[in-house]
Amino acid sequence: MSNDIQDLHKKVKDILYSLTGITLADNKDIMIANRLEKLKRNTNNNDCDINELLKEIKNGKYVSEFINTFTTNKTHFFREDFHFEDLRDRVLPEFAKSGKEIKMYCSAASTGEEPYSMKMTIEEASAITQKQINSTIIATDIDTNVLQYAANGIYRFQKSSKEFPSWISPQKYFKKRINKSLIGDEVLIKVKDNLKKDINFSKMNLNDDTYPFDNHQFDVVFCRNVLIYFSAQDQNEILKKLFRLLKIGGTLYLGHSENPHDLINYVKRIGQNIFIKTKDFD
Ligand SMILES: C[S@@+](CC[C@H](N)C(=O)[O-])C[C@H]1O[C@@H](n2cnc3c(N)ncnc32)[C@H](O)[C@@H]1O
User: Fold this and answer.
1) Ligand 1 atom at shortest distance from the alpha carbon of 222
2) Would you state the pLDDT for residue 1?
3) Which of 24, 152, 251, 274 qualifies as a cystine partner to 28, CB 3.0-4.6 A?
């Protein structure tokens, strides 16, 4: 790789880190090249000098476009479904019994499949316990495009896919929309209003120094498949900030390849990356 390209990619990594905290590994050169092409298209700057475009971004122009281009948003409904089973069988029955509202935080919501899966799980637990469980779900992400997608709540769904676990009937939560241009048995499905009404989507950067929430505000925090984009040190800092938001006795769910770092002495591990907060971090 030429020195010019190395310099260019270093500039991209530095800007991305300063705006989001995301650290791109050394083997991401092809990805960076592809995303720079996408950035040019997304900002209608197809013929521009890329160094000039990066200068403009550093000066505050096209910041959202830059962030939205460089985030990776892969997700699906009921990803790591054992977390939702734990929520249904262990956490939610307590709220059904006490009648208290459960407050949940989804800290990297992407296109919305994760917070909607949380809400479907609450509805299922209400049906099982025959008690209406009241809930609020705050769902944040740094990428404004995915937040818009999530708020629209329209998804491609392949009838033959196994995306939903056997204990969920998609027709209970989604309206089917016919779209003839889709392929095979794929249809568009739209989230019903009752699934949407207790979810609040907003933009938040996990790398910010402080978060706009209170200590001990949440009973449950989901932080899954996002820490992997940060350095070990920054993962630790983010986890400590998220941990303050969680009540003692509350549950933290992490993604399959993420670990609790310094929190390990302040939690009880009860399953695959399921942690109960036992005390506050000093
Ligand atoms: C791979 S998706 C994971 C989505 C979901 N949590 C899951 O497990 O399926 C990672 C998400 O983290 C978001 N993200 C990346 N950096 C972030 C930051 N600094 N603050 C908030 N969200 C961030 C991305 O925009 C992306 O939507």
Assistant:
1) 6
2) 79
3) 24
Q: Name the residue ranges covered by the structural domains of the chain.
A: 3-70, 81-152+194-277
Kindly report, residue by residue over 87-114, the tens digit of the pLDDT: 999 999 999 999 999 999 999 999 999 9
Q: Which of 86, 77, 87, 44 lies closest to 174 in space, CA to CA?
A: 77
Q: Which member of 35, 79, 88, 224 is catalytic?
A: 35
Q: What is the pLDDT of residues 34-87, one digit of tens each?
A: 999 999 999 999 989 999 999 999 999 999 999 999 999 999 999 999 999 999
- Residues of the chain with pLDDT > 70, as a percent, come to 100
The amino acid that residue 229 corresponds to is Y
For ligand 1, mutation pick of 77, 114, 142, 210 (most atoms within 8 Å of CB): 142
CA distances from 183 to 22, 167, 191 (A): 35, 27, 21
H/E stretch holding 175 reads strand 174-177
Q: Provide the token pair at 17.
A: 């880190």
Instruction: Ligand 1, residue 21: give the atom nearest the CA.
Output: 19
Q: What is the pTM of this model?
A: 0.97
CATH superfamily of 81-152+194-277: Vaccinia Virus protein VP39 (3.40.50.150)
Q: What is the CATH number of domain 3-70?
A: 1.10.155
